[in-house]
Specification:
Elements lengths: L3 E2 L4 E9 L20 E8 L4 E2 L19 H15 L6 E2 L11 H13 L16 H12 L9 E4 L2 H12 L5 E5 L3 H10 L5 E2 L4 E2 L2 E5 L18 E5 L11 H14 L2 E5 L24 E6 L1 H4 L7 E4 L12 H12 L5 H10 L2 H27 L4 E3 L5 E5 L5 H12 L1 E2 L1 E2 L10 E5 L4 H15 L1
Parallel strand pairs: 5-17, 7-10, 7-11, 11-12, 12-13
Antiparallel strand pairs: 1-4, 2-3, 6-14, 8-9, 13-14, 15-16, 16-19, 18-19
Helix pairs in contact: 2-9, 3-9, 4-5, 4-8, 10-12
Length: 460
């Protein structure tokens, strides 16, 4: 066992908090740390360097050292916990991390409970399932979301969530590809690319990693990149409706994106995790666009539709028409990745997913989405009434609020310090997010209304 000799004297100590974005967004209650679902690691800072008696000869993955600071959402949680220690009587409300708050509809949990109880019987027990997902669920996803689009059940891989599939896809692509991302965009795209060794070092002067094409998306270009200025890349990560800006790409814009990919021989990874929030005629799937099946993969999830952030269930669509430069089907390699790294989604979660796609389940999910969209209207109206420019909010549960000339982290700290509200600094999503904050509409109605009141008191 490796032993550590520590100096007997310490100059100071600190406490770092770790957790994932499924845990960290829960509505705040001032509970003792040991009772909160957050891992706490106390770190002592010795005066003298720690002396190790034994080290392995295994080199650290050099790409891990490229990552900047901590992952965005754990860093927000750390600052929130520091604030709660400073103000133990305050009721901190989270409008930050995109975790759902409302109960899963009973029609869906009943199906999971039935499947769970069946596992205690000889007739109902099942062990390992197909890594690709249960056949009836794959068929239901194909019919519900891709009917008449030429997507078959065998094109669908059921998983434990879109975020997990992002990393599996990066394993599939390997380290010798160049990728493009919207700027700003969900941090997992960039961080997984860094870990895989696809990027160069972080360039502090421009707040970007080398060898990544950042496709700037701002109010000036309607939050859709000027593709004439985008370099040829192998992989394009594209999210619509977008997290964090809340903007959904139009049909004409997606036609241009698909044509750009076809012209350059690129693969689009299209994240449609918020598609059910679309309330206009923007496409809900990339496969609505002619020619997309030859150049696109789509990832999606039940997380933001049915409250499955903790249940964990999503899917990836890889059409048979999508092939690598040598003609080998992309789906076959992804199938090998899945079979190697994954034993399949929980059979209980899949029972819930199947019920989500029943007529009663779809109705229940639309009601949940409608509730969050009403919250979004409250958030958007609040900031607009205070004179702020607000983007998004129509087709996504996020408002993208502009604070021109100000640091996103400074605005985050101001709102936390003075209103006890957690938001998300826009710069955490990429350099083009500087000067913005993302405000989530996931929350209990009374908390959203209270947050609106506090914001008005702060900025009126």
């Amino acid at each position: 066992m490796a032993l550590l000799q520590l100096s007997a004297h310490f100059s100071s100590s600190s406490c770092a908090f770790f957790g994932d974005d499924d845990v960290l967004s829960s509505t705040s209650k001032t509970l003792p740390l040991l009772r909160r679902n957050v891992k706490c690691r106390c770190i002592a800072e010795p005066v003298e360097m720690m002396q190790t008696v034994y080290k392995t000869k295994v080199s650290r993955n050099e790409n891990m050292a490229k990552l900047q600071a901590g992952y965005l959402f754990p860093e927000i949680a750390r600052r929130r916990e520091v604030h709660m220690l400073k103000y133990p009587e305050a009721k901190v409300i989270s409008l930050g991390i995109g975790d759902t708050t409302e109960p899963i509809p009973e029609v869906i949990t009943s199906a999971m409970a039935e499947r769970s109880y069946a596992l205690s019987t000889v007739a109902g027990y099942s062990g390992y399932g197909a890594e690709q997902g249960e056949k009836n669920l794959r068929a239901a996803i194909a019919e519900t979301y891709y009917g008449n689009l030429g997507i078959q059940e065998t094109d669908i891989f059921v998983s434990d969530g879109a975020k997990c599939d992002i990393s599996r896809l990066q394993i599939l692509f390997g380290s010798n590809v160049m990728m493009a991302v919207q700027d700003p965009s969900y941090p997992a795209y960039v961080d997984s690319s860094v870990i895989m060794g696809q990027t160069g070092p972080f360039q502090k002067d421009v707040e970007k990693y080398g060898k990544i094409e950042y496709m700037k998306c701002t109010p000036e270009n309607g939050f859709f990149p000027d593709l004439s200025t985008v370099s040829k890349t192998d992989i394009i990560f594209f999210c619509s409706p977008n997290n964090p800006t809340g903007s959904a790409a139009t049909r004409e814009q997606l036609v241009r994106l698909v044509q750009f990919a076809r012209d350059n021989g690129s693969i689009i990874v299209y994240d449609s995790a918020y598609a059910m929030y679309i309330s206009d005629d923007c496409p809900r799937s990339i496969f609505e666009i002619p020619g997309a099946k030859e150049v696109a993969i789509e990832i999606s999830s039940f997380s933001k539709y049915a409250g499955f952030t903790g249940v964990r269930l999503g899917w990836t669509v890889i059409p048979k028409q999508l092939v690598f430069s040598d003609g080998f089907p992309v789906a076959k390699d992804f199938n090998r990745i899945v079979c190697t790294t994954f034993n399949g989604a929980s059979n209980i979660a899949q029972a819930g997913g199947l019920e989500c796609l029943s007529p009663q389940g779809l109705k229940a999910m639309h009601e949940v989405v409608g509730f969050y969209k009403e919250n979004t209207d409250i958030v958007v109206d609040t900031f607009k009434s205070l004179g702020f420019k607000v983007y998004g909010g129509r087709n996504a549960p996020y408002a993208w609020v502009h604070f021109p000339g100000r640091s996103s982290w400074d605005v985050f700290e101001e709102i936390l310090e003075k209103a006890h509200l957690v938001t998300t600094p826009g710069s955490g999503f990429g350099p083009a997010g500087e000067g913005f904050i993302r405000v989530s509409a996931f929350g209990h109605r009374e908390n959203v209304l209270e947050a609106s009141k506090r914001l008005k008191e702060l900025y009126m």
